[in-house]
Write a structure and sequence with these properties.
Chain lengths: 350, 287
């Protein structure tokens, strides 16, 4: 589902265009670390793969069929920065050659379906891999959850963009509820296909799965005396300075906080407008039918007298702290030695 | 390196071999569309314009359309007339244009829902209670999206793929992006051919995706497709190295495919649209 021209107003389109251009600029520089010098042919071929995968249809039910968006799949297979590049190229080619998605909406489409799905899918996958057993097969469940959440996150960002630059005043609470509801279903489909596809690659060529790097069992050699010994590890320059995920994690926290703050702010303000109109026009009875979500949000705001935007932010902070504690516990439980290998993997991934 | 659009032509050949069977097949319609974009063979003034001029004109025109308030119905009529005149000038078949505008359809569904789910003052149309604001928003979306899609279709149908890529480079798009896009377009036909062969292999074993349980088979094909694509990418890179290629910029195109028309002609469409928008602003201030 590509956003066409005129769906969002001009300032929002330009703003998302700037975000997309910045992300692409960053991705161009970082992607070379993921693919060495082979960036260009491999990224081009991966783009063609994503394009072809988006056309693998499968029946969903009553006459409709679904297809893959592929953000998380690309991130897990070739790494997040290359994936951002590949997805962006796919959207550019689709807009220029197939009129699929408007040219002014190109930034919006890249931000929504290229950037958000890749980032959320990748971060969730990486986070889960820290908790799951250290085997290449663990990538599969991690990618499933990552794919589901990535689609839901993209739908939430869509609602946020619509709140800022939308053209109709649809009650945002209701829009958010229906978008998230549908996209949870779509996300489950995406997750299943992503998981199965990643599983198929892990089974044949686990070395090609970017997210599985560092999860391979150590190579064991048998020496002259017949004892099993670990093969010497080849030191890569990247491994010398572990970088970790701190930068991307902080960036995504800021984005999530902004979304939560902005969406809930707009959601709480929309019933006011409706109330105003209904009082003015004297049809308050009709308003009840289509402001379901809006009223629910308004109620949240009134409970305890906390502004909804701040309540949303507090919720996000609570979830983040909880998630951080869980990850922390998991890492402590695993011990220092494995911890160091995890950082190793991050450095390769970073 | 020379034949940027050869895979595209190959894909077109595959597509025409069994048209009916490939209607819903992997990449069938898209591959056919891509070839139609590049090789229409006609040379009108619009075809001969430099690609970068057309690209900028397209972007400017769509920006003007997007910036116009939805209730200026006459302005949209003027935009449609301008774009219609351009479409006539390209001498493309109306049926071809309409078929390629089909990509807009999913969002039409959303536009149709808008009058029913929007808030605000209600009115009655054909016995259904709809929101006035929602009606206007649906109209705005329909008008702007349709104009945008038609403009995109006209651009794609009158410009060679390699000229578009060269135009991106002229407009200072990041070089690596342009090269990646060039590789993608170049190997799209190959990858789609690979996917098509897998599909033939599935079909000849009497596989038909009937329910969700069959997703596994399709996904395994996607996994195999990735492995083959990645390995092909490695081979392509090695082949480039073997021929002395490296990290330097790739030659995308040698010369424009046709004799170029003056670039200024492309500015007529966006400037006319801008004039309509400015006239609307002036009239709005006076009244």
């Amino acid at each position: 589902m590509h956003v066409p021209d005129g769906f969002l107003d001009a300032p929002t389109s330009i703003a998302t265009g700037v975000v997309a251009a910045g992300a692409i600029g960053l991705a161009v520089r970082r992607a070379s670390a993921e693919l060495n010098e082979r960036t260009i042919p491999l990224a081009g071929l991966t783009s063609a793969f994503v394009f072809a995968t988006q056309m693998l249809n499968f029946p969903v039910g009553v006459g409709t069929s679904g297809h893959l968006m592929g953000g998380t799949l690309a991130a897990v297979l070739v790494g997040p920065w290359t994936a951002v590049l590949c997805m962006s190229v796919v959207f550019i080619v689709q807009a220029l050659l197939f009129a699929d998605g408007g040219l002014t909406a190109l930034g919006t489409n890249i931000t929504l379906m290229g950037l958000t799905t890749v980032l959320v899918g990748w971060l969730v996958t990486r986070g889960l891999l820290r908790v799951l057993p250290r085997r290449p097969q663990s990538v599969v469940p991690a990618a499933v959850v990552g794919a589901i959440l990535s689609v839901v996150a993209a739908s939430l960002l869509f609602v946020a963009l619509y709140a800022v630059g939308g053209t109709a005043d649809i009650p945002l609470g209701a829009l958010a509820a229906s978008m998230v509801g549908w996209h949870t279903l779509i996300g489950i489909g995406e997750g299943v296909i992503t998981g199965l596809t990643v599983g198929a690659v892990v089974a044949v060529r686990p070395d090609l799965v970017h997210a599985a790097r560092g999860l391979m069992p150590r190579l064991q050699l048998r020496d002259a005396a017949g004892n099993l010994v670990d093969a010497p590890v080849e030191e890569t320059p990247a491994a010398a300075k572990p970088r970790g995920l701190r930068g991307p994690v902080i960036a995504s926290c800021v984005v999530i906080a902004l979304i939560a703050g902005v969406v809930s702010f707009f959601a709480s303000s929309s019933p006011d407008g409706l109330e105003h109109v209904s009082a003015q026009e004297g049809f308050a009875d009709t308003a009840k039918d289509h402001a379901l979500g809006g009223w629910a949000f308004a109620d949240y705001g009134e409970v305890g007298g906390i502004p909804v935007g701040i309540a949303g932010l507090l919720g996000v902070v609570a979830v983040l702290v909880l998630g951080w504690l869980v990850l922390r516990l998991a890492r402590v439980a695993r011990g220092r030695a494995e911890d160091r290998t995890a950082d190793h993997a991050d450095a390769l991934a970073g | 390196m020379g034949g940027l659009h050869t895979p595209v032509l190959d894909a077109a050949r595959t597509a025409t071999r069994t048209p009916a069977a490939r209607a819903s097949a992997v990449g069938g319609p898209r591959a056919a569309e891509l070839s139609a974009a590049g090789t229409s063979g006609r040379t009108t003034l619009v075809h001969r314009l430099p690609a970068e001029a057309k690209l900028l004109a397209h972007l400017a025109f769509v920006l003007v359309v997007v910036a116009t308030p939805g209730i200026w119905y006459w302005a949209f009529a003027a935009y449609a007339a301008l774009l219609g005149a351009t479409a006539v000038a390209t001498r493309l078949r109306p049926g071809f244009l309409l078929r390629r505008m089909g990509v807009e359809l999913p969002f039409l569904g959303f536009a149709l829902l808008m009058p029913f789910i929007s808030a605000g003052e209600r009115t009655t149309v054909l016995g259904l209670s709809v929101s006035v604001h929602g009606l206007v928003a649906a109209w705005t979306l329909l008008a702007k999206a349709t104009l945008g899609v038609l403009a995109s279709v006209l651009l794609a149908a009158t410009t060679e793929v390699r000229d578009l890529l060269a135009a991106l480079r002229v407009l200072h798009a990041p070089d690596r992006m342009v090269q990646i896009a060039a590789f993608m377009v170049r190997y799209l036909g190959v990858v789609q051919g690979e996917a098509h062969r897998m599909r033939v292999a599935r079909d000849s074993r009497a596989f038909e995706a009937r329910h969700l349980g069959h997703v596994r088979v399709v996904a395994q094909s996607a996994g195999a497709l990735f492995v083959r694509t990645y390995e092909r990418g490695e081979r392509v890179h090695l082949a480039m190295l073997a021929r002395g290629g490296g990290d330097g910029p790739l030659p995308l195109t040698t010369a424009p495919s046709t004799a170029a028309a003056p670039a200024g002609v492309a500015a007529v469409l966006p400037l006319a649209a801008l004039a309509v928008l400015l006239a609307g602003l002036l009239l709005g201030r006076m009244s």
